[in-house]
Amino acid sequence: xxxxxxxxxxxxxxxxxxxxxxxxxxxxxxxxxxxxxxxxxxxxxxxxxxxxxxxxxxxxxxxxxxxxxxxxxxxxxxxxxxxxxxxxxxxxxxxxxxxxxxxxxxxxxxxxxxxxxxxxxxxxxxxxxxxxxxxxxxxxxxxxxxxxxxxxxxxxxxxxxxxxxxxxxxxxxxxxxxxxxxxxxxxxxxxxxxxxxxxxxxxxxxxxxxxxxxxxxxxxxxxxxxxxxxxxxxxxxxxxxxxxxxxxxxxxxxxxxxxxxxxxxxxxxxxxxxxxxxxxxxxxxxxxxxxxxxxxxxxxxxxxxxxxxxxxxxxxxxxxxxxxxxxxxxxxxxxxxxxxxxxxxxxxxxxxxxxxxxxxxxxxxxxxxxxxxxxxxxxxxxxxxxxxxxxxxxxxxxxxxxxxxxxxxxxxxxxxxxxxxxxxxxxxxxxxxxxxxxxxxxxxxxxxxxxxxxxxxxxxxxxxxxxxxxxxxxxxxxxxxxxxxxxxxxxxxxxxxxxxxxxxxxxxxxxxxxxxxxxxxxxxxxxxxxxxxxxxxxxxxxxxxxxxxxxxxxxxxxxxxxxxxxxxxxxxxxxxxxxxxxxxxxxxxxxxxxxxxxxxxxxxxxxxxxxxxxxxxxxxxxxxxxxxxxxxxxxxxxxxxxxxx
Length: 645
Description:
The chain is mainly alpha-helical. It is 59% helix and 4% strand. It is built from 30 helices and 7 strands. The chain has a 5-stranded parallel β-sheet with strand order 2-3-4-1-5, with helices on both faces. The chain has a two-stranded antiparallel ribbon with strand order 6-7. Helix 21 packs parallel to helix 23. The protein is globular. The protein starts with 20 loop residues before the first helix and ends in a 10-residue tail after the last helix.
């Protein structure tokens, strides 16, 4: 006998899908990630950094850190968690004068190598490098310190700068010779940070309302990112409120999380030991703002997962759902949505269950899985529930629960409507400061595994290109490259396009992918690398750099040994670029060097060039092919004659 609360609604399934099947699901997932990104902007990209710089409030110790960076090209930032260490580190790099290189974060996972220490190959001329060790473990922290001396020598040679965010809890492991490079920052004024962000949103908060709203005691307790989040919520309230509402209303509505109901929830649960009511309590908390039917199904599902004995009382002798909700302090509002009467009570309930019932956390994961599989759950309710569940899993150091669900929800047998939920889970994990590295490493492992299914690969392409690329573009590029190599069909096409878009977005990433393709083509393991090279390689971009030309030569060397029809069209683009006298010498030098004095490869190259010339006879094309032949002959030790063409 299945136990139920209140009214039972049989198969009251609402609309789940529309549009073009998997394509619709993919775009739904993409839209959800873009919305999440807008709520929590990252700060590696130049546009995001400019946005942040305009709102940045320098903390105590910032000038000392600048001096250290100017003097030694390196500074180690320390400070208590929540003080804005990472933001300060980014602003130190962003504000460097006459910076000629790129600003990027050093990898923090073992991508294609067992090493997790520092690699001088990540340094370019004039680069500004960020290394965030705030959540590093002891072994990683010690390894980085051991490698830092040689790495700093390379920094100086390249005119580059490095800012390291230290793990405050491991201060006792800091080596003595590095202490002179350390700068400790304090926490900036919380109220000033809030005011600055609000003013940039066009909101001038009255000082009297800020001082009299309880913020003076509340703000100092918040991490800097939560203060920024509060400003964002106030702005959203302003944009969605009626004209008769003012700042005090926007602020009050934005301070829901200020209401700490922890003690009240603990007392209520201590006095209420009925398992059925507790199940309803947690269901309301997780699906807060959902319909009564959703809350009821959630409670019944939880009882089933926990093998709770059914209630033998006849159904009509038991209270209905309205009464059950009232008993736990909840109600169905006029909009038909169930909420607790006390503001902040739902969060306190979630916190209590995950904190003080640690022995059922795995069952809570299974319960959430069962609830989300139900296609009747509305998209808006799914999105909010996923965010709440992820917050609890991450808070209680269970990132593996999110990985497990994402893998399960993208399996071949999983319903398609779970794809946006899986993408959101992984994106939330990637954005988490404490557990982001866990997810970057997990996604790397998935992207390199032959056992990863097409559904999960599709989600990985999405989260790498839409989420990881914004904060860790180098690591996103590595993962997309692996996915492009191993994926077929629509997923493979999306992976290739996402990889190419990312590589073409920045010179440094373009060079990095060229290097990876050169290595892959030489190894001959992945046929996809040749196709990627032919689409990526630009006959003009960065050709003045010797390292770029070497990578191009290496790639063409492998490509020219493949069937001519596979590279004839891309070759035409290169020869067309060679018609321009400004580029001709370097373009043709790369192509002839790629033949490596190989007669067969040189012959195929020259024959393809002749076909290109005959397709559109012109003086510039004839001259380009003539110069190409002279270079081929020179490379083979053959004396060139004026009438050779």
